[in-house]
Write a structure and sequence with these properties.
- By secondary structure, this protein is an alpha+beta fold.
- It folds into 3 domains: 3-152, Galactose-binding domain-like (Jelly Rolls); 159-347; 373-475, LytTr DNA-binding domain (OB fold (Dihydrolipoamide Acetyltransferase, E2P), Beta Barrel), CATH 2.40.50.1020.
- The chain is built from 11 helices and 20 strands.
- A 6-stranded antiparallel sheet has the order 2-1-3-8-5-6, with no helix packed on it. A 5-stranded antiparallel sheet has the order 14-13-12-16-15, with no helix packed on it.
- Strand 10 and strand 11 form a beta hairpin.
- Helix 2 (159-186) packs antiparallel against helix 3 (189-208) and helix 5 packs parallel to helix 7.
- The radius of gyration is 35 Å and the shape is elongated.
Length: 476
């Protein structure tokens, strides 16, 4: 049953201030054309199981008694169907236009309410007639009509639950941005995976609430359900990917292949709630396996992660519909937001370590402490062949052929490095102790280094470079 049905029935059952819903004992009938506005219904039989108008025109009849103290009432239809409603032979309205063929049907909204005025009601034996059809759904649903009952009108506003969902969705999108920023600084796969997890959960939260925001036609509901299952499947795979890379890298490929197989198998289940629940539970179980390995290896945060996964696994077993519809966002937010906080704290700690390393470098004039988003390392000045400027960063070319990014400006390094380093171009510092010679091509001078590197020399710096090299350098 859909979330709107659960909320509706929950309120009607537990709220003492409203009249409870009435579900008529619906009968499916054969319609015989007549001169009256409504066809004659005969051969009526009680509806067994779900009400299913998919691929057909369906006529329903039900008898309802109006409560003595009732206020305004309406007949509510929530489902993948077009509908038309009468009460006591009075026409109440259309939702789309049901028809006997696909061409004759205009798809209606997934949620519809038909208010019943006081003048329509009789003292007893009120007869409701409902005409349904559903020819345009992109997928076949096990329960196409989730709600077909009479209840107080208008129904309670969903503003409060929507506000909660949007707050959680906003937090998830903010977490996705935060982890994306961290990935741009550190280039770690775990931060990119967590950004994707947060983004997928945020989109899923919006998609879950779509029917409360937009009165969409019922064919959209089928696409929406497929989207929810797809997002949940992606979430499950990302969750397994993150836990296995964090706690059990050696088991990455076997566990990921098992996760893909389990999530793909969920598509064979009957009903989209079951498909979504199985995909999510598969991800929880396999992620818990990785976290369990982490606990055995005594890795940081493995115990808390396993406890969180275990909690929601238990909820999924006891209250599967609640996990899929209502608490999935809480699970994602409860996992992602503490991780983001921990990552920000770790970034600050690493920055302090880099500052300490740079301070230490002042006492080591023969070395350069190379600071980058990944950390800091000591590089002997004698190993640096050239320094190439790149905005707020510089690129160090080393004697072993490696290149290192250093978070410093070229102007500052020019002032700090010893005299063997000379500015030969607006974006190049060269260590003249590694010079092999120079060459001139088309009036442009290039400095040749012993590692085979060729560096450009600006026209303004050419005379000074030649003078600095003196007779020890040869022209190629």
């Amino acid at each position: 049953m859909s979330r709107i049905a659960l909320l509706l029935l929950f309120g009607l059952i537990f709220s003492p201030s409203v009249v409870r819903a009435q579900t008529p004992a619906w009968e499916a009938c054969r319609a015989v054309p007549s001169a009256a506005p409504i066809p004659i219904l005969d051969d009526c039989r009680p509806v067994q199981g779900v009400i299913d108008p998919q691929g057909q025109e369906l006529w329903l009849r039900g008898v309802v008694e109006r409560p003595a103290a009732a206020g305004p009432l309406a007949l509510y239809i929530v489902g993948a169907t077009s509908s038309e409603v009468w009460m006591n032979d009075r026409w109440l309205g259309l939702n789309g236009r049901p028809g006997a063929t696909p061409a004759g049907e205009i798809p209606g909204r997934y949620e519809a309410a038909f208010p019943i005025s006081d003048s329509v009601w009789r003292t007893t034996d009120n007869v409701a007639v409902v005409r349904l059809s559903a020819f345009h759904s992109p997928v076949r649903l096990d329960a196409p009509v989730a709600v077909l009952l009479i209840a107080p009108y208008p129904w309670t506003s969903q503003a409060a639950p929507l506000a909660v969902v949007f707050v959680i969705a906003g937090a998830l999108f903010a977490a996705a941005f935060g982890f994306g920023l961290i990935h741009s600084l550190r280039r770690t796969s775990s931060s990119l995976t967590l950004a994707a997890i947060a983004a997928v959960a945020g989109v899923q939260a919006i998609l879950e609430s779509l029917r409360s925001l937009i009165p969409y036609p019922y064919p959209v509901h089928g696409w929406r359900l497929m989207g929810i299952w797809g997002l949940t499947a992606v979430f499950a795979l990302l969750l397994v990917s993150w836990t296995v890379s964090r706690f059990w890298p050696q088991g990455r490929w076997p566990l990921m292949l098992l996760a893909v197989a389990a999530v793909a198998a969920s598509s064979l289940a009957s009903g989209f709630d079951l498909k979504t629940g199985l995909a999510l539970m598969s991800g929880l179980v396999l992620a818990a396996v990785s976290a369990g390995v982490g606990v055995r290896r005594r890795l940081p945060a493995a115990g808390l992660t396993l406890a969180w996964l275990g909690l929601f696994f238990v909820i999924g077993v006891i209250f599967p519909a609640w996990l899929v519809d209502l608490s999935y966002f809480l699970f994602a937010a409860g996992l992602i937001l503490p991780l983001l906080t921990a990552e920000v704290v770790r970034l600050g700690r690493d920055d302090r370590r880099r500052e300490a390393a740079l301070t230490e470098a002042l006492a080591r004039p023969d070395c350069l402490i190379v600071a980058s988003p990944r950390g800091a390392q000591r590089v002997p000045l004698a190993d640096i062949v050239a320094v190439l400027g790149a905005d707020d960063y510089v690129e160090l070319r080393l004697t072993d052929g490696r290149s290192l990014l250093h978070s410093a400006r070229l102007d500052r390094l020019e002032a700090e490095l010893p005299s063997t380093f000379r500015r030969i171009h607006r974006s190049v510092l060269a260590n003249l102790s590694h010079t092999e010679g120079y060459e001139s091509t088309g009036g442009r001078l290039r400095l040749l280094m012993q590692t085979g590197l060729s560096l450009p020399v600006s026209r303004s710096q050419a005379p000074a470079v030649k003078a600095a090299l003196g007779s020890g350098a040869s022209e190629a």
